[in-house]
Design goal:
The complex is a heterodimer of chains A (149) and B (502). Chain A is α+β, with helices and mostly antiparallel strands and 149 residues long. Chain A contains seven helices and four strands; from the N terminus they run ααααβααβββα. Chain A has helices spanning 3-21, 29-40, 45-55, 59-67, 88-92, 95-105, 141-148, and strands at 82-85, 112-115, 127-129, 132-134. Chain A has a four-stranded mixed β-sheet, covered by helices on one side. Chain A starts with a helix and ends with a helix. The relative contact order of chain A is 0.11. Chain B has 502 residues and is an alpha/beta fold. Chain B folds into four domains: 20-107, Glutaredoxin (3-Layer(aba) Sandwich), CATH 3.40.30; 117-315, Rossmann fold; 331-414, Ubiquitin-like (UB roll), CATH 3.10.20; 421-495, de novo design (two linked rop proteins). Helices cover 40% and strands 13% of the residues of chain B. Chain B contains 21 helices and 13 strands. Chain B has helices at 3-13, 27-30, 34-44, 87-94, 112-117, 122-128, 132-142, 154-162, 184-191, 193-206, 221-236, 267-274, 303-315, 317-321, 354-362, 385-388, 419-433, 439-452, 463-476, 480-483, 487-496; strands at 21-24, 51-54, 65-68, 82-83, 170-175, 211-216, 253-257, 298-302, 331-338, 344-349, 370-375, 381-384, 409-414. Chain B has a five-stranded mixed β-sheet, sandwiched between helices. Chain B is globular. The mean pLDDT of chain B is 93. The chains are: A alpha+beta (149), B alpha/beta (502). At the A-B interface, helix 2, helix 4 and helix 5 of A face helix 2, strand 9, strand 13 and helix 17 of B.
Chain lengths: 149, 502
């Protein structure tokens, strides 16, 4: 099968799935974007285009809407994600020290990100590893193991 | 079956037979091991002892916690666990005035009969048996105001939507809790999901609404799951869907998941989000109560607001008015964090003194251990701890200037904290979260940050210029985010700088 045919099949399959799951109405745009992200782990250009076809919304509008939401990803996520909450409450409880510790100690290819308030303020400071949050963290070996395993 | 028959049949099944061991599993306690405790107990406890999960009771500082008469510590390994009978926890909970959080942490989060055995759905039954207008009158009489941050009288909002002629009338439950430092709606949904459903149904019946949508913050995964589960249970037991409780009233609740963004909690933005449009606010007027979802009248109420309704219906408006402040009766759930010893969620009477509550519920020895308090997130500001002695929690500007309670986040800042850094952080958040629709907010918030950059040291900052810009942003922006985006720097200007702004 040529790559053109594969591409067409891929699009048709997705379109079929969208038809089954979402009525052709713009109010299903956000639920459908969530569905795409869950299925492919991020929103690809072709996926957004197919979604636009199905809902009858111009691709530019689909793209425009998708880009306004912070939780929607337009490129593949990193294989391993480590984030340190950098909200006001976590800062009060040593987020800066945790960031400094992790940036010095972790292996070279592990990118440690800062995130805005993750609403984990009551168990600050919080660190997330692959989207799971861990509270009351302190710089040290236990944290390093958590992050690197 | 009529409503009375329905109640009788349910009451017969609703024996108060809760699990002997309740593990408080909430999103924050999951970050400190509550789920592992639950799994371990499920596996190791003898079959004769039933284990279930509840939400967290708000005493987060002590988590993970177990609510049980029994000592089950021998079945848990490697994780320190606190009993809800612990004196610190008891004291923390008992010193509050708990209406919304009445059953948070002490009943199962998934057992509808446990909820019913604790008077659950009896307020709805009462409402369904009386004319809708009577409930609206009662809410008006109670003086209930919205708890999302604007504190607008609920009955006025309801009546405005009811006076707009339309076949369809919508209720949107705003659970897009996106204010940094606030985690209370999540606690409510995780621990008493059935109460939110009951509150929403009371509102829907009273206002003759035709649809209800529940919009949950993208990051509140556990709240979403618990609500999804509770909605399904309610449908299967006749509390949701066609002919609710045998009354002939038919409505369902559609649940939607947000996708991030502070501005999504702004009500007109929320409507755009639900309609599949860009995350941007709408021009107001028309207000949502006249032209909201699909241009039809829409009532947008916060989770906490709706959860007050069952209590008001059961106890009466007069009892409600005895709590809190005469102008703003009832309680407010505060999210207390930062440089405090006992961070958590506490439900306190409106009008409580800010300094006193920080000391008592923050578990600090004196208010002087804090340099300042960041109140109400990035739409509000910072206030010196000494000033907090004169402030009480309530609607509007607490200090008459730039500090608002918002959704109730209070973050204690230590004596070592650079308050200007915190203000920069809050302003940075506003700049990033600005949707970009209107120029004063989009450009202004970025310029504010530039003006606050400390290239030549903090003393070289032009506070007069900053104050003027902040006031322009507040005055000329379209939505609540922009209209409050200048507040952090204005508060800093008025309390921490010699120069007064504007």
């Amino acid at each position: 099968m040529s790559s053109n045919n594969e591409e067409r099949k891929r699009r048709n399959d997705l379109r079929g799935e969208l038809i089954d799951k979402f009525p052709r109405d713009r109010s299903y745009l956000l639920p459908a974007l969530h569905f795409l992200q869950e299925k492919f782990s991020f929103l690809s250009d072709w996926g957004l285009e197919v979604l636009g076809w199905h809902l009858g919304v111009p691709a530019s509008e689909v793209y425009g809407t998708a880009t306004t939401y912070t939780e929607l990803l337009l490129s593949p996520p990193a294989e391993k994600t480590v984030s340190v909450c950098d909200g006001v409450a976590c800062r009060e409880n040593g987020a800066a020290q945790i960031l400094e510790f992790l940036s010095n100690k972790t292996s070279f290819d592990l990118e440690v990100q800062k995130t805005d308030c993750a609403f984990m303020c009551s168990v600050a400071p919080a660190v997330s590893v692959d989207h799971r949050w861990y509270g009351r963290q302190v710089p040290g070996d236990a944290l390093l193991r958590l992050v690197e395993n | 079956m009529n409503t009375l028959d329905f109640i009788t049949s349910v009451a017969n099944r609703a024996v108060n037979n809760p699990a002997e061991v309740l593990v408080q599993v909430g999103q924050c306690s999951m970050a400190v091991g509550s789920q592992e405790i639950y799994r371990s107990l499920e596996e190791k406890l003898p079959a004769s002892i039933a284990v279930d999960y509840s939400g967290c009771d708000g005493a987060c500082f002590a988590g993970p916690k177990i609510h049980s008469e029994k000592d089950v510590s021998e079945y848990i390994e490697g994780i320190r666990v606190t009993s809800t009978g612990d004196s610190n926890v008891r004291n923390y909970i008992d010193s509050q005035t708990r209406i919304v959080l009445e059953h948070a942490g002490n009943i199962s989060a998934s057992d509808i009969y446990g909820y019913i055995a604790n008077k659950g759905f009896s307020a709805l039954a009462k409402v369904l048996l009386q004319p809708p207008e009577q409930t609206v009158d009662m809410v008006e009489e109670s003086g209930l105001r919205g708890r999302g941050g604007a504190y607008f009288p609920v009955s006025i909002k309801w009546r405005s939507a009811m006076s707009t002629a339309s076949k369809e009338r919508h209720i949107v439950i705003n659970a897009e809790e996106g204010e940094p430092g606030v985690f209370k709606d999540r606690h409510v949904m995780e621990s008493v999901p059935f109460r939110l459903i009951e509150g929403a149904l009371i509102a829907a019946y009273a206002t003759k609404a035709t649809s209800i949508r529940l919009y949950v913050n993208a990051e509140a995964h556990l709240s979403y799951q618990r609500m999804l589960n509770a909605l399904e249970i309610c449908r299967s037991k006749g509390f949701l869907g066609p002919n609710i409780m045998g009354s002939g009233f038919t409505i369902d609740i559609e649940i939607l998941k947000g996708a991030g963004g502070y501005v999504c909690g702004e009500e007109s933005t929320l409507l755009n989000t639900i309609e599949g449009k860009r995350r941007e606010p709408r021009l107001r007027p028309p207000f949502p109560t006249e032209s909201g979802l699909n241009q039809q009248p829409t009532i947008i109420n916060n989770v906490e607001t709706l959860c007050n309704l069952p209590w008001i219906v059961l106890n009466g408006a007069d009892e409600f008015k005895k709590i809190g402040d005469p102008d703003t009766p009832g309680t407010k759930i505060l999210s207390i964090s930062g440089s405090v010893n006992t961070p958590g969620v506490a439900e306190l009477p409106m009008g409580s003194n800010l300094a006193e509550l920080m000391v008592k519920f923050g578990g600090i020895s004196s208010i002087n251990t804090l340099s300042a308090i960041a109140v109400g997130g990035p739409s509000s500001g910072v206030i010196p701890s000494s000033e907090s002695l004169n402030l009480s929690i309530g609607p509007g500007f607490l200090d008459g200037k730039s500090v608002m309670l918002g959704a109730g986040g209070v973050i204690g800042l230590s004596q070592d904290t650079n308050v200007l850094e915190v203000v920069r952080k809050l302003s940075e958040y506003n700049a990033r979260e600005s949707c970009g629709k209107c120029t004063p907010c989009r450009e202004g918030t970025t310029r504010l940050l530039e003006l606050m950059a400390n290239d030549s040291g903090d003393d070289a900052i032009d506070w007069n210029g900053i104050g003027q810009l902040a006031e322009v942003i507040n005055a000329a922006s379209l939505c609540g985010l922009g209209q409050a985006a200048g507040n952090p720097v204005l508060s800093y200007g008025s309390y921490f700088q010699e120069v007064s702004p504007g």
